[in-house]
Structures are given as C-alpha cells and as structure tokens.
Amino acid sequence: MTTPPVCNYEGSDYQTSFWDKGGREYEDRTEAIALKRLLPKSGRLLLELGAGAGRNTPRYLGFDRILLLDYSRSQLEQAQARLGKSDRYVYVAADVYRLPFVSGLFDAATMIRTLHHMADAPRALRQVKSVLGAGGIFILEFANKRNLKAVVRYALGRQKWSPFTLEPVEFVQLNFDFHPKAVRNWLKDVGFTIEKTLTLSHFRMGFLKRIVPIGILVFLDSLFQWTGAWWQFTPSVFVKAKLENRETGIVEIPANPVAFFKCPDCGHSPLIDKKDHLACSNCRKKWGVKDGIFDFRESIAN
Ligand SMILES: [Zn+2]
Q1: Spatial distance between the Cα atoms of 194 and 234, rounded to a whole number of angstroms
Q2: Which of 76, 155, 143, 85 has the alpha carbon at shortest distance from 116?
Q3: pLDDT at 132 over 70
Q4: Helix (H, G, I), strand (E, B) or coil at 197
Q5: How many CB atoms are closer than 10 A to CB 71?
Q6: pTM for the full model?
Q7: Which residue of 38, 44, 138, 249 has the lowest C-beta tally within 10 Å?
C-alpha cells in the first residue's frame, strides 16, 4: 500500500528555533485562546495529531487522557521531557495516512499546524474520521491560501498563484496552504458538520509585532477571531467539526493503551503485548515499543 510522502521533523529543533526563540509568542497565545473556545469542557481520550514537542498538550485540560501522535520520534521525546511519563499521556510515532487505532476509539481529536504538511489532505481527514467515535469533536487548524497578504500580492502581480482557487498551493516542498472552502468541502464529504470557525493571526506582521505590545495584539486578535464565522482572510484558521452519528457508536476506552491499537498494515486487532514490541497475529508484523513510545512507522524485521 503506498501512502503520500510525509514531512518528517526527525531531529528538528523546530520547538526551539520556531516557538521558543522565533518571536512566535503572539501566535502561541492566540492559539491558546482559540483552543479554549473550541475544546469540549471534558472528555475521555483525545488524539493530538502532529503533537510535535507537546506545545499545546497542556491546554487539553478537561481530558482524562491524551494520545500524542507524531511522525518524528525525536519530537515525541521532547514532549516526554516536557510532560513526563504518566498514564495520562500515550506517545505514538505513526503515519497519519496509516493510523494504528481501532475504529471509533477517540471522543476528540486535534490537528494544529499539521494539515499544512499533507500532500493528500482528504485522505488524512478520512483517517481521522475512522478513529473518532459517534459525536466525536475534531479541531482542525489549517493555513489559509486566501489570506490578505496573498490577495494583495496577487492583485499587484507579485504572486503567480491565485488565492481564490480551491486547489492547495505548495509554496515550499511539503508545505501547503488551503482554500477555506476546499477544507470545508472535504470535511463535509467525510461526514463532519462544521460547528464553529475562528480566524487567527490577524496581526501577523513583523512591524506591528515590533511596535505594539504583544498583549494588546493578542487581545485584539481574540476579538477578531469570531469574525471567522463570516469571512476568512487570515493566514491561520481554526475549525471545530463534529462527526455525525454512525454505526460505531461510542467505544469503551480500555485502561491499557495496548488495546487502543490495530496493525497499521493489515488492520488486525488486538495486537499482542510482547513488552519491547506489539505483535500482529494476522500478518506477523512486529511494532516497536521503546522508552514509552509506540512506533508504528515501520515494522521490526523478523
Ligand atoms: Zn497485521
């Protein structure tokens, strides 16, 4: 089975260079506000897709347990160092196009600054649907190609691609911006109902960040976020979507995370716990478990 290419942050210092030292306090704080506005007040098990180094994880306060998923093992190790090893957090290295979970497992999922790297976004969204239970909530952030800067540049002839057409634009390899309507269409096709849309980063401009105190920009952005219900011209958009009722119903969440998983190759579950790996009794593949991280990217050679 072939899957689209993955943008791999293995060994990346993204957390430090982009967030901690990159002057992104404004973006980080506006995301915290949006998450507070969109997240359910409580829940059992939340799937964080593209969790990276766990920057947003402490914000999922109302949830009993959180499963952090990332393609990069080293990002998850940074998250472990930040959040600690406890039953509250489960760490999984896996490909979003081949999610290793039994269907209907989660009551919520988030995907923030991650769809941005998806060459086949609808395929990734179908995977998210398959692991959410009936009535499941999905909070999705995407980069908006129809942002004000792109519109102005296009109008002035300084940008070739149109911000108004529905196809994604890949401005750097495996970095995609999407049209809000295209994302809405994909979500609806998959079976989601969109409940809320917030626009973020209205003031993501270097000169503003230099002359206006961050607290004021964050406050103004928090007011403007609600305008996302009517129009979206900011570089970042958050959507809260709900999965329509369907046959799976609500799945009992097992205490032992081993029971969360299915074989990403053949779909078989349950997997057998062999301590340093999980074994599939159907296709005989083995999936590594090391230092508290389940690894479903590639099976271990027999
Ligand atoms: Zn298998």
Answers
A1: 18
A2: 143
A3: yes
A4: strand
A5: 20
A6: 0.94
A7: 249
CA dist., res. 100 & res. 302, Å (int): 20
Instruction: For 20-30, give one letter per residue: b (16+ CB within 10 A) or e.
Output: eeeebebbebb
First-to-last alpha carbon distance for the chain, in angstroms, is 20
Determine the distance separating the centroid of ligand 1 and the alpha carbon of 21, expressed in angstroms.
43
According to DSSP, the β-strands at 236-243 and 192-200 are: antiparallel
- Tokens of residue 242, six digits: 């709900």
Q: How far is the CA of 86 from the centre of ligand 1 (A)?
A: 28
Radius of gyration of the chain (CA): 19
State how far the Cα of 248 lies from the Cα of 62, in Å rounded to an integer.
24
Q: How far is the CA of 105 from the centre of ligand 1 (A)?
A: 19
Residue 85: predicted pLDDT: 83
What tens digit of pLDDT does each residue of 165-204 get? 999 999 888 999 999 999 999 999 999 999 999 999 998 8
Alpha-carbon span 156 to 233, nearest angstrom: 17
Amino acid, single-letter form, for residue 15: Q
CA 298–ligand 1 middle distance (angstroms): 12
Read off the pLDDT band of 24 (50, 70, 90).
confident
Tokens of 241: 């979507």
Q: What are the pLDDT digits (tens) for 281-299?
A: 999 999 999 999 999 999 9
Q: CA 154 to CA 157: how far, in whole Å? A: 5
How many A from CA of 100 to the centre of ligand 1? 10
Q: Residue 254: beta bridge partners?
A: none
The CA 265 to ligand 1 mean position distance, Å, reads 5
Q: Does residue 85 or residue 58 have the better pLDDT?
A: 58
Give the H or E element holding residue 137. Answer: strand 132-143
DSSP per-residue string spanning 162-181: -TTSSS-EEEETTEEEB-HH
